[in-house]
Fold:
Amino acid sequence: MFPLLTVITFLPLAGAVAVALLPRSREGAARWVAAAVTAADLALAVRLLAGFRTGAEGMQFVERLPWVPQVGIQYFMGVDGISVTMVFLSALLTLLSVLASWKVAERPKAYFAMMLLLQVGMTGVFCALDFVLFYVFWELVLVPMYFLIAWWGGPRREYAAIKFFLYTLAGSVFMLVGILALYLHPAGGTFDMVMLAASNLPAGFQWWVFAAFFLGFAVKVPIWPLHTWLPDAHVEAPTAASVLLAGVLLKMGTYGFLRVSLPILPQASASWAWFIALLATISIVYGAAVAFAQTDLKKLVAYSSVSHMGFVMLGIASMTAEGINGAIAVMFSHGLVTGLLFLLVGMVYERAHTRKIADLSGLSGQMPVYAGILAFASFASLGLPGLSGFVGEFLSLLGAWKSDMHRGFVILSALGVLLAAAYMLWMLQRVVFGKPSPAVSGISDIGRLELVTVLPLILLTVVVGVWWDVLLRFCDPAVQALVSALGAS
Amino acid sequence: MTGWAALIPEGLLLAAALAALFGGQLPFGDRGTALRAALFAGAAGVFAAFTRTGELFGGALVFDATSTFVRAAVALMTAAWCLWLAGRDIGDERRAELVSLALFSSVGGMLLASAGDLVTLFLTVELSTMPAYVMMGYRRRDARSLEGALKYFFLSLLTSLVTLYGLSFLYGLTGVTAYAGLSAAGTNTLGLLGAVLAFVGMFAKMSAAPFHFWAPDAYAGAPAASVAFVSTVPKVAAMAAIVRLAAALLPGTPALIPMFAGAAALSMLWGNLAALPQTDLRRLMAYSGIAHSGYLLLGLVAHTETGYLASVVYAVAYGVPSMAIMFVAAEEGSSLADLGGLAERRPWAAWSALVLLLSLVGVPPLLGFFGKLYLFGAALDTGAVWIVVLALGLSAVSAGYYFRVVYVMFMAKAPEGREPLAASVPATAGWALCVAVTALLGVFASPLLQAIGGKLP
Structure:
């Protein structure tokens, strides 16, 4: 059988090596190599979606080889309905990020090599079904992202980069404790994630292991109060890194909950659910409230991410089929919409050299097409029905209401939707309308390449928003299986 | 039955050492001496890897998985060091004597790794550290180098004597010097005291807290080329000796285990926290060495066969990248600022140094990660949860100071008026060997150890 997942995962590695080996005199070719490789990877990801049997249960496209047989570490790859959507999202956003970075002139070889290396890690996390392999990919993401922020970022880039690195590393070492604990426990005894999901671990043990994994995943999501690295990283990161950070890296955290915490530690998940729901609610309201106060457009989008990721966690904490489907839909939609928003912020920053909301007023006169797209993205972000943002937030609130969590969490979270509408519309009012400020006078509208970059995101936002099934048909069978396993334990 | 053939590697190293010392009239000159030594050490490593298991001299030398792994590692690390030295000079001094000293030390190290008797243990400890005293003071006109050497000499001598004092108790109580009969000594207080003294001396050589104070000063003063060797190769060998001694003594003296845990925790805390504010690469690596000694002791805390082997593997996971980082300090200067702009000047060196530092942090899939995986797994397996959590937390802290090095290499500006370093094939080869081992050995460590008869968790 054709090892599709391996090729999707490691094709960018080959690309990164190819880019690194380009002679310095032809370093401009790096972007072409990167574009070709990521485009091929996206084509393969589409092939993966097409070949995926949506009704079937269990893992598909499984590849399994012994790696370190003495310890039972395997090279074990496979996707189910939850991860296959994330693999597609990673491939799409990486290609668009490469296109959005077309003008990077400083050290292009290193830049695109890092971008491709990042893709290896991102894709690998969603495909790996062996814990050691999972951890390898998980950590692999850190280094390229560190360099993307630290080399091509804004004025406080070094601080932001190391903060990102240390926060995530500190979280993930606790994850390693969890992995080792599962391996060493007599009822576990393996690194195989699928086998562990079928094991029956004692509840007291689960509680501690859950705590260890929680630290690793929660930093990545990020859940309040572990979110403070995120605004720094986003503000300093170059546009493309922001897109991937928000679009894919944050999803690694919530994916961890779906792939590890819920299936392997079901009883602990149930006893931790109220705590996660509490933190999710705080993230939603706090993120939205802080977004309100931002004067920097990029920081506003960053804090809106904290709020949106709260909805993912709320859906997961509900432990109902609706809620988890909703969580996945928010993950997917947030990848599209926040990716789009960061691209748009990058475009206006490139032209006006400022991200201050006050300095950007009156954009609609100068950049009518851009202003239209920004309005679209804002509506999608605030959860307008008919666009993708609505699907997930609706489902996760529905799931949370149906679950036995305290209704207060759900009501407060629903308030977060209202807040999102308020800060987004207020931002639109200040940026799009009003008197043109000097910073935006004489700047040009969105270019052709830029339009190509944002168009796929716009289309998918509409398609998923109108035709929910296009997404849910993939994840729903996996989610149903997960929920019935949760109910059984 | 293991015959004299088991000693071929030591013989090769000894021949090369004597040739370096007395072969001034041999062709190829000073640089050729280092290259020839590298060749011999490489051959010794290959022979050592294929040594059959068994004993020599009635158990005075033991050849098993641990000694096979460590002897090969010591010889190959020496080969990498000699290769690198062949391409780089150390001030005005000749290389030949330095090479011969290093080779003598590694003969001692290889024998130390298979020592199965108290007398062999002490003799080989001395054989592996004596040449190191001279290496640390190799720049005889440099006062700082001599200061570092003197500190190292006094402390090392003192700790040797402490070890010897402890060994004498053990011998007095049991009447034997072979490890096999030693566990009987642990049953009374005097035996415990003897064991404590023996380990204290060995820990001090490993620069484990609280006996670590000599390391930063000694490493910062001595020539970086010597530090690259002295701070790594003898440590790997000493770790093998410690686990062998622990395996012999611990069954009789379980009271030692809390002491090991305390020393491990203290070393990890002290090393990692004290490394954070350092601005000198060598001092930083000295503190990182103290921290890694703490990790190494986790295998003793586990006191299982897998734990011992994991410690030895981790000693290599610490030693190889640390040695290569000291090469950079020798080439570029040891203040962190000297590394500024390395990524611009020598991109390959900077990127591969990143790999080495990430391995020291424990990022997968590098050697350091697998080393920690086996080591922490072995410790967790025996229920030492708190110390593993501490070790993991401090691993994250260690990223803080290793990344200061990364930051300088990749973000900072180059210091003014820096001459570009001449390219050198042997130096690059020695460097590349270290990087390749760091990048690839982790993935293959387990099958490799199984092939030589060892078992990891």
